[in-house]
Design a protein that fits this description.
By secondary structure, this protein is mostly helical. It is built from 13 helices and two strands; from the N terminus they run αααααββαααααααα.
């Protein structure tokens, strides 16, 4: 793989990381919660799409359209039943709650689906394996282009939602000061629940694309959480535009590292994350987390 090929494929891989990171960034930006169950919720969404696609013998894209509303409702209820009460328990309680949720979700998936590895690549059809051959050294996978287009549309749409619509302005006002927002008639709990629903919905979308791009099993969640967290930190915690850039930087680091030596693929991404974390942007991120 040439460097140019590695960079292009890294950008496309980074778009998938950005999709995973989107919900994580949204929940931190609105609620100041780092959701440790985010990766497991994405894998749960992948299993929901896989279950519908295999049982009903339909395309994974159609199965995703069915699973998405269910996961949005699950996200809304998740806040009402679990995260909302934990927010009133102090700064550490939501973090521990999402940690416990991650363990429960992962073990439930193990019990229901077994540890077997699964994939929706074959069911997705030609788009999952086809590519555009630019020249002998450069190819661009169709599926990567699809993920990139969806990531740009999703993150751009959420950015417009937050800045130019009434629900978005309510989310930003609640994120700034929930108590003051309630004084002017904004129901903070409802805003938080809607933000959680959106986060779980985007996680489901990312999980479905993961299932079509690679294999997955009930223990895949923590790995995806790490990549999502690294993308969020590289791009700036709470920034949707930064999340897209952060995902691409992480993806390019991994593919360029793999070009040098396949063993360096994951390590190269971690090194970039560490470099950002110890730099001025990382110190600012830590400072914001402490203040939150």
């Amino acid at each position: 793989m040439t460097i140019a090929n590695a960079v292009i494929n890294g950008v496309l891989l980074g778009a998938l990381y950005a999709l995973f990171a989107c919900g994580l960034s949204l929940m931190f930006g609105v609620m100041r919660i780092i959701n440790l169950a985010h990766g497991d919720l994405a894998v749960l969404g992948a299993f929901a799409v896989w279950l519908i696609a295999t049982q009903a013998q339909v395309s994974p894209f159609l199965a995703l359209a069915v699973a998405l509303p269910v996961m949005l409702v699950l996200g809304y209820l998740l806040h009402r039943v679990l995260l909302g009460p934990s927010l009133r328990g102090g700064e550490l309680t939501p973090l521990l709650t999402t940690f416990g949720l991650a363990i429960v979700v992962q073990n439930l998936m193990l019990q229901i689906f077994s540890p077997d590895v699964r994939s929706l690549g074959a069911a997705a059809g030609e788009i999952s394996v086809g590519s555009w051959r630019v020249n002998d050294q450069l190819t661009v996978p169709y599926f990567g282009l699809l993920v990139l287009a969806v990531a740009v549309a999703l993150l751009g749409g959420l950015e417009i939602l937050l800045r130019r619509t009434r629900p978005g302005r309510e989310m930003r006002a609640t994120a700034q000061d929930a108590e003051t927002a309630e004084l002017v008639g904004i129901p903070a709990e409802s805003v938080y629940a809607k933000a959680t629903a959106l986060a779980v919905g985007t996680a489901t979308l990312a999980g479905a694309f993961l299932a079509m791009h690679a294999t997955f099993d009930p223990s895949s969640g923590p790995t995806q959480l790490i990549f999502a967290f690294e993308a969020v930190v590289i791009g700036g915690l709470g920034s949707l535009r930064g999340t897209l850039v952060g995902g691409m930087v992480l993806g390019v680091a991994q593919t360029v590292g793999a070009t040098i030596d396949p063993q360096y693929a994951i390590l190269a991404g971690h090194l970039v994350f560490l470099a950002v974390l110890t730099g001025p942007r990382g110190r600012l991120t830590v400072l914001r987390s402490v203040r939150a």
